[in-house]
Design brief:
Blueprint: E1 4-10, H1 14-28, E2 33-36, H2 41-47, H3 53-61, E3 64-69, H4 84-95, E4 99-105, H5 118-121, E5 125-131, E6 143-146, E7 152-155, H6 162-177, E8 182-187, H7 193-209, E9 214-219, H8 220-229, E10 236-239, H9 241-254, E11 264-266, E12 273-275, H10 294-306, H11 311-326, H12 340-350
Parallel strand pairs: 1-2, 1-3, 3-12, 5-10, 8-9, 8-10
Antiparallel strand pairs: 4-5, 4-11, 6-7, 11-12
Helix pairs in contact: 1-10, 1-12, 6-7, 8-9, 10-11, 11-12
The structure holds 3-isopropylmalic acid and magnesium ion.
């Protein structure tokens, strides 16, 4: 049966890295239908909104969506609801992709590219399971108001329900079962009500259904510290939207470059997943053709595996990336001099 992949290249280095993922997809699966739409700032400039209604409809009816990145300094002054990032948040919410899987895997060939010592990171394999459609990213009320005395007041609301916590915790436990059977649940139950609820709900689900998995509760600040102190103690880390945003950037850097890490955002079974490189739009290097396309290519691999039912293609793509890196292919972020296109070529050659 033919499958459809919607590409949303977006802003900054997004179009450059998605072009390489597209070439890899074409090489591996010539019959895959690929559609493309503007997204983020590119969509705002072109159609007056960071995501068009047709694009949301196309995303919901595709088998998977692969996006590049959104945002850039040229849209810094735009009203919040029109900002490129608002388009991404809307897409996540509309697609109901509540479970964001962000693996941090240290490739053997790159253990020396990490800012940490080789033996701390060689063989590292962590999975951050980030709640993606709730928490402070979406909580109401929010806004900036001016008080009668002229002072301004900004409000964000962190809010979680027990069902939101349990469904993301279930994803973490199920995934841990296929890995090393260890889950750390990170929150701030020492100061936050949502953190306390998080801890209680995760513990209750663990007790009811996942006695075979080891569960450790950890305060999010300590988790940040332990990630640099002894990263290999972790297998799966489950956490809320905001802590997951922060901890996944930190974990990404342990592997040598944020330019290597893919991610998947999943909803209920059978619904399309949203795949994206963990890196952002990197305006400082956008348009120069020097960005690392590996994260985008590996995100395509995750789409093959988790939404498109093509495990064998995902295996081949991942093996090709490993082989290219083993052979010394390096973009600038990894201390090399290959262009985005040349790195894409190296992966295609290895395929
Ligand atoms: C990420 C990004 C986004 C987020 C931004 C671009 C809205 O940092 O995917 O990690 O905060 O979720
Ligand atoms: Mg982030």
């Amino acid at each position: 049966m033919s499958k459809t992949l919607l590409l949303l290249p977006g802003d900054g280095i997004g179009p450059e890295v998605i072009a390489e993922a597209r070439r890899a997809a074409q090489a591996l699966w010539p019959d895959l239908t690929m559609l493309e739409a503007p997204f983020g700032g590119a969509s705002l400039d072109h159609a007056g909104a960071p995501i068009a209604e047709e694009t949301i409809a196309a995303a919901k009816s595709a088998d998977a969506v692969l996006m590049g990145a959104v945002g850039g300094p040229q849209w810094a002054g735009v009203a919040r609801d029109k900002r490129p990032e608002a388009g991404l948040l809307r897409l996540r919410k509309e697609m109901a992709v509540f479970a964001n899987l962000r693996p941090a895997l240290c490739f053997e060939a790159l253990a020396d590219a990490s800012p940490l010592k080789r033996d701390l990171v060689a063989g590292l394999d962590i999975l951050i399971v980030r709640e993606l459609t709730g928490g402070v990213y979406f909580g109401e009320p929010r806004g900036i108001e001016t008080l009668p005395n002229g002072e301004r007041r900004g409000v964000d609301t962190q809010v979680y329900t027990s069902s939101e916590i349990r469904r993301i915790a279930r994803v973490a436990f199920e995934t841990a079962r296929k890995r090393r059977g260890l889950v750390h649940s990170a929150e701030k139950s020492n100061v936050m009500e949502t953190g306390l609820l998080w801890r209680q709900e995760v513990a209750a689900l663990h007790e009811a259904d996942y006695g075979d998995i080891r569960l450790d509760h950890i305060l999010a600040d300590n988790c940040a510290m332990q990630l640099v102190k002894q990263p290999k103690q972790f297998d799966v880390i489950v956490t809320d939207n905001l802590f997951g945003d922060i901890l996944s950037d930190e974990a990404a850097m342990l592997t040598g470059s944020i330019g290597l890490l893919p991610s998947a955002a999943l909803g209920e079974d059978g619904r399309p997943g949203l795949y994206e490189p963990v890196h952002g739009s990197a305006p400082d290097i956008a348009g120069q053709g020097v960005a690392n396309p590996v994260a985008a290519i590996l995100s395509l691999g995750m789409a093959f595996r988790l939404s498109l039912g093509r495990d064998a293609l995902a295996d081949r793509l991942e093996a090709a990336v490993r082989k290219a890196l083993d052979a010394g292919a390096r973009t600038r972020d990894l201390g090399g001099s290959l262009s985005t296109r040349q790195m894409g070529d190296a992966v295609l050659r290895a395929l």
